[in-house]
Hints:
By secondary structure, this protein is mainly beta.
Amino acid sequence: PALAENWRFSASAGATETYTSNANYSVASLAQGDFATSVTGTLQVNGEGARLKLHGSIGATQTIYAGQTQNNSFAPQVNLSGNLEAIEKFAYIDAQAFVSQTFQSPFGAQPGNLVNATQNRYTEQTYSVSPYIKGVLPSSNISYQVRDDNTWTVASSFGNSSPNIPATY
Length: 169
C-alpha cells in the first residue's frame, strides 16, 4: 500500500519590551535599571513520511538591553525527536535533541524570565542517537533487536558570565 506523507509546520514570532529595575539581578545597593527588548521565534514540525518521522519545536530568544549591553543574550530552546527507517524493515535510527535554559544551583538566583541576567543560568543541551536493527528470524517467531543508545550532554555558559558546566557522554 502507498503511504501518504503528512507534514505540518507552524511558525511564530514575538517581541516584548520590558523595563527591569534590576537588570543584573544583584543586591539592591548594586541594582541598575534598564530596558530590554526580547525577540522570540519558534518553528514547530510534526511529520510522518514513508521512512522518516519528526516531531517537536525549535526556537530562540534574543534579548538586547538598551544600556546594560554586557547582558545581551541568545537563548535557544529545542525539543525535537525523530525516527528514520534507514533500511526498509531492518535498520533504524532514533534521535532526540533537547536544549533549554536552566540553573546551576538551586540556591543561586533564579529569575522567572530571561530579562534579568544571572551567573546561575546556563544552556543545557542533551542529544541522543540510537541506531538499531530489528527483525524476525526466517521460519520462526523469534524476533530480535540490537540497539546502541548514545547520549551526550553539553552545557554552555549563558552570556559571558556563567561558570563552565561539564559535558558528558
